[in-house]
């Protein structure tokens, strides 16, 4: 395995943390848009994108290791991390649409 157990755990936790951060930032961005604070909403969405990019980079590292033949075990924590990340991506996409709705009606 290309990653030690400690490194694997750190990568998985990074997915959970960055996914959670991204989701929270998207939710906060919608709240700011609801108040008419579109500049702040846009800043929060950029931060959301950065969190998702960090998670994506972690996934890419793990996928590249798998392609090299370094088997990465799929544990329940990894499934949870991927679920957390996908949830964040959906919330981000919906937030972008909702923010634009608020913006067009403001």
TrEMBL record:
Pfam families: PTS_IIA. InterPro entries: PTS_IIA_lac/cel, PTS_IIA_lac/cel_sf. Binds 1 Mg(2+) ion per trimer. The active site is at 80 (tele-phosphohistidine intermediate). Keywords: Magnesium, Metal-binding, Phosphotransferase system, Sugar transport, Transferase, Transport. It comes from the Bacteria. The modification Phosphohistidine is found at residue 80. Its cofactor is Mg(2+). One of its GO terms (molecular function) is metal ion binding. One of its GO terms (biological process) is phosphoenolpyruvate-dependent sugar phosphotransferase system. Mg(2+) binds at residue 83. The keyword Transferase applies. This is PTS mannose transporter subunit IIA. The lineage of its organism: Bacteria, Bacillati, Bacillota, Clostridia, Eubacteriales.
């Amino acid at each position: 395995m290309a990653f030690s157990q400690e490194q694997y755990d750190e990568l998985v936790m990074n997915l959970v943390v960055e996914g959670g951060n991204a989701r929270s930032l998207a939710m906060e961005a919608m709240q700011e848009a609801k108040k008419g604070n579109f500049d702040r909403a846009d800043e929060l969405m950029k931060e959301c994108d950065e969190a998702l990019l960090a998670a994506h980079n972690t996934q890419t590292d793990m996928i590249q290791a798998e392609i090299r033949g370094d088997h990465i075990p799929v544990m329940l924590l990894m499934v949870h991390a991927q679920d957390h990340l996908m949830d964040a991506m959906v919330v981000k996409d919906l937030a972008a649409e909702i923010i634009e709705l608020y913006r067009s009606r403001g």
